[in-house]
Amino acid sequence: MYSIKIKKNDNPLLNEVIISNENIKFKSIIYPNLGASIQKLKQNEIDIIDGISNNQAGLDVYKSKYNSSWLFPFPNRIPNGKYSFENKEYELEINESNLNNRLHGHIFNKSFSIKNHEAANNSASVTFSYSDEGSSKGYPFPYELEITYNFSPNKLNVDFYVLNTGKTAFPFGIGWHPYFNSNNISNSVLDFKADNQYLIDAQMIPITETPLKFETPLELNGTFLDDCFITKQSEASFKTDTYKIDIDFSSDVPNSFLQVYTPDTRDCIAIEPMTCAPNSFNNKNGLLTLEPTKNYNWKVDLKF
């Protein structure tokens, strides 16, 4: 039987929604006020997701690593924070000052409301909602979001829903930024289907496509990655000594995109599904547009 507990903290940024099932030794924790990000996914005593600790040190880590954050209205970087849309110029606030970029959109630090939660014998779900009136610098487009986490044995399904509540169309893309733990990253194996990846400039911005630099499946060994791959299928897998995951991420465009990053700590890997390429507001690769009153759904299935 699944159960859901809402736990408040002296610091509301650290409030938790705890989903558990003792029968299958399962526990998950979501932080509503950190962009409805999932910071724990544990089964059979194995921590699958690398999340933050429930203290100030954890908040400091989140600011630099964006653990499991949802990336909207764009993932990754926009150089100098500048882009144009429908013959208008916009300038976003810079939040990666060392490279002079806007990084990872606007919602990673927003407070979401708990709209609904249900627990049953073999499943549980929690829906979080957020509304933006279009007051963000450089992105004057109002929208509403809902993020629904659906849990069942050995599976997490996430439904990301966005509604355009404004009077004009807006550009957007969506991404997810989870890190997955590995006690032995060198022996871990990453797999996905792609022919090409991006070469990047000094600002970490894609400049051109190039053939994939390695074959997949890839045993990581000493490989360090911070690359975006143009995937032929919206799928990826990661296998460690203790668990294996499969990620399915929907895409309505000819290509989908996968950012992969291996931190210097060599204890985890970021596997980031995205609907678009980095800097899509300018290069248009995978860029989506949402008309007034229209909505868009993006789904991510994680099997573990």
UniProtKB/TrEMBL annotation:
Pfam families: Aldose_epim (PF01263). The keyword Nucleotide-binding does not apply. GO terms for biological process: galactose catabolic process via UDP-galactose, Leloir pathway; glucose metabolic process. One of its GO terms (molecular function) is carbohydrate binding. Coiled coil: none annotated. Its cofactor is Ca(2+). Keywords: Calcium. InterPro entries: Aldose_1/G6P_1-epimerase, Gal_mutarotase_sf_dom, GH-type_carb-bd. It comes from the Bacteria. The keyword Calcium applies. Monomer. This is Aldose 1-epimerase. It comes from Lutibacter flavus. The lineage of its organism: Bacteria, Pseudomonadati, Bacteroidota, Flavobacteriia, Flavobacteriales.
